[in-house]
Each structure stands twice: as structure tokens, then as C-alpha cells.
Automatic annotation (TrEMBL):
One GO MF term: aldehyde dehydrogenase (NAD+) activity
Matches recorded under Pfam families: Epimerase (PF01370)
Family annotation (SUPFAM superfamilies): NAD(P)-binding Rossmann-fold domains (SSF51735)
UniProt name for this protein: SDR family oxidoreductase
Organism, scientific name: Streptomyces aquilus
Gene3D superfamilies in alphabetical order: NAD(P)-binding Rossmann-like Domain
């Protein structure tokens, strides 16, 4: 299958591209800079120069391929306005790619996030939030899933808040960056709330399996660790960096503060059973031992 991939040079995307190529697929990858073009070519894929805001380029990429995996996002969490702009940009991109796929029965796998469900572990049938700081992403994803009734084999792979590799990535990576900047390895509240996690190389396999196998309109959980307490995550970061570990105000985390403070464990039992996905790489707490002191 020839696959159009957005976000193909990031932590997750580069792993997805490598996994696709290693399993007999070819890849056309969106590349927004000269450095990204070089990275795509070095990986063995074909670059398509453009950004997530270039809707005509996105449509052209879809038209040239047999299926789509969408991973790109601005990742600017510096302010509520920046986050909102990134969500709007992604929503427009998803709509444009979806329109190009109508009636084709081609697969469209979009990235999403595992939801938080009060009082229990979330599962694949739980809805994603459509309000709050990232509600716009939830609404865009629901629209993607709705394409199942319009001749698109749409599916979502829900990532946990931390997708990691060599101690980098996700919410845990943000905790590390903030710890380096502030001199404290902090956590919100009492730190007993739980975050799920997955290694990027394991997540990449699930994106491919969803592309190859997923039934239209379905959601899948890329969860290896059901939920580590955030204070345990902060403790490893603090030990690796030689910094004190303590509770800090939720406002420390900017517009993501309310999400950081949520208890959000998630299960992938249905995903593993149905698609045959089995994570094999180090857990988050093991992988954080790779943080440079």
C-alpha cells in the first residue's frame, strides 16, 4: 500500500514511517522544511513539501496514495490562543483530507487521545471529550469517524498522554523540560493521579495494524502502561536530574494544567485482542532511566 503520512518526521511519525517501510508499504510523507525533506528521504520515503495549513497540498497527497495516516500537530502549548490555533489548523486539515477520500473505501487513520473517565479506566468505546481545552480535537476526530458512512474506512488510534522513546516525548517529556527549567521535578496535586503511556515503536505498529485491518468508524488504544502515578514519574525524573521532587501549582503547566491534573488510566485490552497488537518495548518508568543527568 502507498501511504500518505502527515507528521512523519516527529518522535512518533518517524517510527510509523520506518514500520510501514519495514512491512512492505511505501510512504509519501508531508515535509514542511528542508530538514524534514532530508529526514524523509534518509528514511527511504518520498517527501511532499508542504505544511498542515496547505490544504491543496494535503488533498494532492491523498489523491496520490492508497491510504492516510495523520499524525501532525503544531505542538505549540505556550498559550491558550496558540493551542486553539493548532486545533483549528488540524481540524481544517482533517476535513480537507476526508473530503478527498469520500467514496473511495480507502483507510484514513487519525491520531487522537485516550479519554479520561471519572472513577475507572477508559476503554475504546468511551467517547473523546468535545469540550474543554482540547474539545476541538475531539470534535474533529468525531467527524473523521463519521466518514465511515460516506465510503471512508476511517479509524482513530488514541495515544496516551506520554508516547516515549529514549526518555523523551509526551507529558513525561514536558515534565522533564519543566524540571530542567525550574530546578524542581514537580507534579500537580498529590501526584496520585495516573497517566497511561506507550513506547513510540509500539505505537507505530498499532498505526500500521489499524491501517491494514481496522473496520470503518472504530477507535483503538495504543496503551502499554495502563497508568503510572505522576509522582512516580516525577521521582524518576528528579533522581536522573539530581533535583528535588515535590508538588507544584497546576498553573505551572499553562493551558495543559487541567489535563495534567486528571486521573486518566486507559486499557488496550480490546485493541490487543482484536488487532493482535502486543507492546514489546520498555515501559515509561524503565525508559525514563535514559534521561541525561
Amino acid at each position: 500500500m502507498r501511504v500518505f503520512v502527515t507528521g512523519g518526521t516527529g518522535l512518533i511519525g518517524s517510527a510509523v514511517v520506518a514500520d510501514l517501510l519495514g512491512n512492505g508499504h511505501t510512504v509519501l510523507a508531508l515535509a514542511r522544511s528542508d530538514a524534514s525533506v532530508r529526514a524523509v528521504e534518509a528514511a527511504g520515503a518520498e517527501p511532499l513539501r508542504g505544511s498542515l495549513s496547505d490544504l491543496e497540498t494535503l488533498r494532492a497527497g491523498v489523491a496520490r496514495t492508497d491510504g492516510v495516516i495523520h499524525l501532525a500537530f503544531s505542538n505549540d502549548f505556550s498559550s491558550p490562543d496558540a493551542l486553539a490555533q493548532g486545533i483549528r489548523e488540524e481540524g481544517a486539515a482533517l476535513a480537507a483530507m476526508g473530503e478527498e477520500l469520500l467514496g473511495s473505501d480507502r483507510p484514513f487513520v487519525a491520531v487522537s487521545g485516550t479519554p479520561s473517565v471519572p472513577g475507572r479506566v477508559s476503554v475504546e468505546t468511551d467517547p473523546v471529550p468535545t469540550d474543554g481545552p482540547v474539545g476541538g480535537r475531539g470534535r474533529a476526530i468525531m467527524a473523521v469517524l463519521g466518514l465511515a458512512s460516506r465510503g471512508v474506512r476511517s479509524a482513530t488510534v488514541r495515544l496516551p498522554r506520554t508516547v516515549h522513546n529514549e526518555g523523551k516525548g509526551g507529558f513525561a517529556g514536558l515534565l522533564t523540560d519543566i524540571a530542567r527549567r525550574t530546578g524542581v521535578s514537580g507534579y500537580p496535586g498529590d501526584g496520585t493521579h495516573r497517566w497511561p503511556a506507550v513506547h513510540a515503536l509500539d505505537a507505530a505498529v498499532l498505526f500500521r495494524l489499524a491501517l491494514e485491518q481496522a473496520v470503518a468508524g472504530t477507535s483503538w488504544h495504543a496503551v502499554a502502561d495502563e497508568g503510572d502515578q505522576v509522582r512516580d514519574i516525577a521521582a524518576v525524573i528528579g533522581r536522573r536530574l539530581g533535583l528535588p521532587v515535590k508538588s507544584v501549582p497546576t498553573e505551572t503547566y499553562g493551558p495543559l494544567g487541567p489535563i495534567f491534573a486528571n486521573d486518566q488510566p486507559a486499557s488496550s485490552a480490546h485493541t490487543r485482542r482484536t488487532l493482535g497488537w502486543e507492546p514489546k518495548h520498555p515501559s515509561l518508568l524503565e525508559d525514563l532511566e535514559n534521561i541525561d543527568s
